[in-house]
Design brief:
484 residues; alpha/beta; Aspartate Aminotransferase, domain 2; Aspartate Aminotransferase, domain 1; 3 domains; seven-stranded mixed sheet; four-stranded antiparallel sheet; 11 strands; binds pyridoxal-5'-phosphate
């Protein structure tokens, strides 16, 4: 006898339909990648445009996949900023690659949760294997334990939580109440994620000391020592120093070896933020910039920024994994039972559930190999130097900061323009080049001046795209001064 007239359980899309739609989707993605340059890198949309075109109520019965995909093409795609576009030079790239995309699709298909060893033995061990490969590729010693997080913001937060635990071993149990004030030291040029970590960890932004920088935007070690001494005198506990290799505005590099010495002298945790710059350590000619980072307590780098891996994938390397685990490890009843076997990666951060991110990174590392990855990074650096040389040669443009990696910070100075006029001109140029749909660059402020940034990190960006960026910029500068 049939218990129910029809099944009460939901049926998934049939495998036949999946196979057909999946083939079509790969076809669509291939075409998208082939024709990426026909899309404007920055869509010309206003806030609310997508919302107003996209149906916002659910149907009762569900819809066909074809209907959903049709709406994706007609309403979502026009609102996409194409990070894959070779003319994407804004911020730092999130440069994916085809092997990375294939790995990402596969991890979605497997849909495993890498929280305990038991819930994903292969996911747990592949994370260790992959991060071991990358560790040796960038020349870090074997004692660094690696764990993958979503973003550098999370990685730095966790590193600083471990530092906080080291400075205040009772904090996990007692909380911060009644404890002396603690301080994190970082440069004025460090990333805002360090402020956010300060807020999240209860130090507040006042608890994050912004050390001044020199003329090349590097942390001043004298100022750092002075701040630490002053805090010690007033009973404030130094918790961590955060040094940056590749700051966000200018890609400057803090003097790591000197900072290592200071951290050692005072027994302070040293965290290195190499979210962007880290992969450049693959290149032996750039290794000198990293000298000393192997002595840090923790290091963050983002393969999703400059190592051809789709978002999201950030790596936290930690010299003493126990310090990280002590900051986070709480084992609830329902997760005990055999949890002593194998590494449980949920113990090294806030998230319980963790995506199988090592799979895409493993695909990327193995597909391109040491030489391929080096060629990719070196190519980007060479193109950036070339672009910087055009700026230097042109009297109406100015290079604002050195170019150690693949980011060029520059501005239009024109002739006989006041400082305000120069700022206005650069903002005009920015708006006008980003309207072309051919390139997308970003701006920042250095020493109070508006400056432009061109950062190369996309596997699709080639010499001709960088040349085109220069032409687009020069055309925009002519337009800007003629007041059109
Ligand atoms: C991009 C960046 C971050 C933040 O990275 P997310 O992964 O987006 O959180 C932090 N520090 C530096 C130096 C960066 O370049």
């Amino acid at each position: 006898m049939e218990l129910f007239e029809e099944s009460v359980a939901l049926d998934d899309m049939s495998i036949e339909d999946f196979r057909a739609s999946g083939h079509d989707l790969i076809e669509w993605m291939s075409k998208y990648m082939e024709e990426i340059e026909s899309f404007p890198v920055l869509p010309q949309v206003e806030p609310g445009d997508i919302r107003s075109k996209c149906a916002s109520t659910l149907t009762l019965e569900g819809e066909s996949y074809q209907a959903i995909f049709h709406d994706f093409e007609s309403t979502i795609l026009p609102g996409i900023t194409h990070w894959n576009h070779p003319g994407f030079f804004a911020y730092f790239a999130d440069g994916g690659s085809v092997p990375g995309l294939l790995g990402e699709m596969l991890s979605t298909a497997l849909n495993v949760n890498v929280m305990l060893w038991k819930t994903s033995p292969a996911g747990t061990e592949l994370e260790e294997i992959t991060l071991g490969m990358l560790r040796s590729l960038v020349g870090l010693p074997e004692e660094f334990f690696g764990v993958i997080n979503d973003t550098a913001s999370s990685s730095s937060l966790y590193a600083l939580a471990a530092a906080r635990n080291q400075a205040f071993p009772e904090i996990g149990r007692r909380g911060m109440f009644g404890l002396p004030k603690g301080r994190i030291y970082t440069s004025e040029q460090s990333h805002s994620s360090i402020d956010k970590a300060g807020i999240t960890l209860g130090f507040g932004t006042d608890g994050v000391c912004k050390v001044e920088v020199d003329s090349q935007y590097r942390m001043s070690c004298n100022a750092l020592r002075r701040s630490i001494e002053k805090d010690l005198e007033s009973g404030i506990v130094p918790v961590a120093i955060v040094a940056t290799i590749g700051t966000t505005s200018s890609s400057s590099i803090d003097p790591i070896t000197d900072i290592v010495q200071i951290a050692k002298d005072y027994g302070i945790w040293l965290h290195v933020d190499a979210a962007y710059g880290g992969p450049a350590a693959i290149l032996s000619e750039l290794r000198p910039y990293f000298k000393g980072w192997e002595k840090a307590d923790s290091i963050v780098m983002n393969p999703h920024k400059w190592l051809f891996t789709p978002v999201d994938c950030s790596i936290l390397y930690c010299r003493n994994p126990d310090a990280l685990r002590e900051a986070f490890s709480i084992i609830p009843e329902y997760l005990q039972g055999g949890s002593d076997r194998g590494t449980n990666l949920m113990d090294y951060g806030v998230s319980l559930g963790r995506r199988f991110r090592s799979l895409k990174l493993w695909f990327v590392l193995r597909y391109f190999g040491e030489q391929g990855l080096a060629r990719g990074i070196r190519g980007h650096c060479n193109m950036a130097s070339e672009f910087a040389s055009w700026i230097v040669e042109h009297s109406e443009w100015e290079l604002v900061a050195p170019v150690p990696f693949s980011t060029v910070v520059f501005r239009y100075i024109g002739r006989h323009l006041s400082s305000e006029q120069q700022d206005a001109c650069n903002l005009d140029i920015l708006t006008s080049v980003n309207k072309t749909g051919e390139i997308f660059i970003s701006d920042t402020r250095l020493d109070g001046k508006v400056v432009l940034r061109l950062s190369i990190g996309n596997i699709q960006s080639k010499e001709k795209h960088v040349q085109n960026a220069w032409e687009v910029l020069r055309r925009a500068s002519v337009k800007a001064i003629s007041g059109e």
